[in-house]
């Protein structure tokens, strides 16, 4: 029981720290010079990224093994590919729309307890990961090491997935499952707001 309380405390502090981040920095084009740190902060400082990446962890935890690790591994791997496309200047239409839609769709999947076949869930996550990665790659500062920057945004993304997984573990109880589905609803509502703003 003590380990559960410690875990809940660490999770709460992490979410509070994420909540104090300024969302205006994520897509402003004013990314500070740096490398790893700049890449690490990019997904964490944009609420449109945060909700989607937490939702991936929530959905994976809700679906259980092997989705609990497959979805959070698929997302950053495909996101890195999208980052390379963005850094190379390969155009991708509807970046902000795709990012906003990711929060809406994955949030709805959690809210409605969607249980598609694992390959379908992985493809959904992968498609949205391309948009997130492209945004990271496009906004990569010219002065930084691309490898350090990519490592930073992949690790930042992974930590957000872990927050989602940690909260998603509450599904082991009936009340916890309702809380997780409610969180999916909040994420979907925020995603809808971002989507309206992107259109």
Automatic annotation (TrEMBL):
The chain crosses the membrane at residues 44-62, 69-88, 94-113, 118-135, 147-171, 178-198. The lineage of its organism: Bacteria, Pseudomonadati, Pseudomonadota, Alphaproteobacteria, Rhodobacterales. InterPro entries: HupE_UreJ. Keywords: Membrane, Signal, Transmembrane, Transmembrane helix. Residues 1-26 form the signal peptide. The keyword Membrane applies. It comes from the Bacteria. The keyword Transmembrane applies. This is HupE/UreJ family protein. It comes from Alloyangia mangrovi. It holds the Pfam family HupE_UreJ.
